[in-house]
Amino acid sequence: MKKVLVTGGAGFIGSHTSVELYNAGYLPVLLDNFANSDKRVLKGIEAITGHTPICHEGDCTDYTFVDRIFREEGPFEGVIHFAAYKAVNESVHHPLKYYHNNLQSTEVLLTAMKKHGCSRLVFSSSCTVYGQPASLPVTEETPFQRANSPYGFTKQVCERMISDVASASVTGLQAVLLRYFNPIGAHPSGHIGELPLGKPENLVPYITQTAAGLRDEVVIFGNDYDTPDGTCVRDYIHVVDLAEAHVAALRYLEHPSRNCEALNLGTGEGNSVSEVVKSFIEETGAHLPYRFGERRPGDVEQIWASAAKAADLLKWHTKRDLREALRDAWNWQQKIS
Ligand code: UD1
Fold first, then answer.
1. What span, in angstroms and rounded, lies between the C-alpha atoms of 311 and 318?
2. What's the whole-number mean pLDDT along residues 244-261?
3. How far apart are CA 193 and CA 105, in angstroms?
4. Cys-Cys with 44: which of 75, 191, 240, 319 at CB 3.0–4.6 Å?
């Protein structure tokens, strides 16, 4: 089996991608420092795939550690780099934590890949690189606005770092930069899903925890935006669709002529926060207390993807809709509550 190094492999998107790698006949080798993930995830991957995941505990900012993994586990067919901090609000209050972790891990990984002759990288980026775009839907040609958080800036810088290395032809790096819109949901088996430590910042885990009685109410952050119902609009993508795109990206890089591409991963449709809340209630029948509150600082008003480039280059498209993602998220929440 072809081995693929998956940094942050025990995280939300990393764990679902590891499952899809097994399904596609690859052997994922997970690295995780478990700073924002839980070892129970490994049992979940095993329950779905029948494979005990290979997982090394350590930090991707540590070159000695990463170099050892390349020596002991390599050669790798490619690397999928998820390991990063991702809380927008926290990054505003602890910028150095974000600059150190997100930038250094990427630099360390690129250095180790070069040393060990590994040329294919799939990078976990975010639609946050666009800021509030002037027109919608967002295409990959839409110019970046000034990042509105240190987290967003680390994604812009990492993308640039990777594309600079890919352009320097002597290194032979090929890369796909995947700009995720809003990943939600869980594996339909209910064995893996999102496990936010502490109080969730993201909408769907907040909804499911509230419906499970772990939180008092959902506060919808602002209903006076210039959108059809006044609440913010996002492009919510099922995490299994997202995971499948990573496998397609690895396959895309198998062709030696491919150098570096940025691709949006979204459904191409926007849904408002109120629509998500109402869809959740309709789909699950759960009791969900909610109210409208103040806007959350730093939120963009509305953003959704053009997913045409990913469909064209990866031959990939989403197969699951918002309601299925909400049902899967609720199924998962009920199993862990
Ligand atoms: C942002 C980034 C995304 C990044 C993610 C990491 C943008 C456009 N998106 O997602 O790229 O990967 O952070 O965490 O920068 N909401 C509520 N009540 C809540 C929680 C959220 O109303 O309790 C609303 C938010 O105001 C927002 C929507 O739900 O309109 C989605 O919020 P969230 O799930 O936090 O994701 P983003 O902020 O869109």
1. 9
2. 96
3. 24
4. 191
Taking each helix axis as running N to C, give the angle between helix 273-284 and helix 322-336, from 0 to 180 degrees, rounded to the nearest 10: 60
3-state secondary structure of 336: helix
Give CA–CA dist 80/103, Å, rounded: 15
Measured from the Cα of 149, ligand 1's closest atom is 15
315-333 core/surface letters (b: 16 or more CB in 10 A; e: else) = ebebebebebbbbbbbbbb
Q: Which atom belonging to ligand 1 lies closest to the Cα atom of 295?
A: 26
92 or 197, higher pLDDT: 92
Q: Which residues pair with residue 5 across a beta bridge? A: 29, 79
Structural contact between residues 85 and 55, judged by C-beta atoms closer than 8 angstroms = no
Best of 88, 130, 194, 294 for a ligand 1 pocket test (most atoms within 8 Å of beta carbon): 88
> Going from the N-terminus, what domains does the chain have, and what CATH number goes with each?
2-185+237-266 (3.40.50.720)
Catalytic one among 22, 85, 98, 151? Answer: 151
Q: For residue 150, report the distance from its CA to the centre of ligand 1, in Å.
A: 15
Is 151 among the residues known to form the active site? yes
* Residue 131: strand pairing partners: none
Among 199, 202, 227, name the best residue to mutate to test ligand 1's pocket (greatest count of ligand atoms within 8 A of Cβ).
202
Q: For residues 89 and 112, what is the distance between their CA atoms, to the nearest angstrom?
A: 31
Closest to 155 (Cα-Cα) out of 136, 184, 130: 130
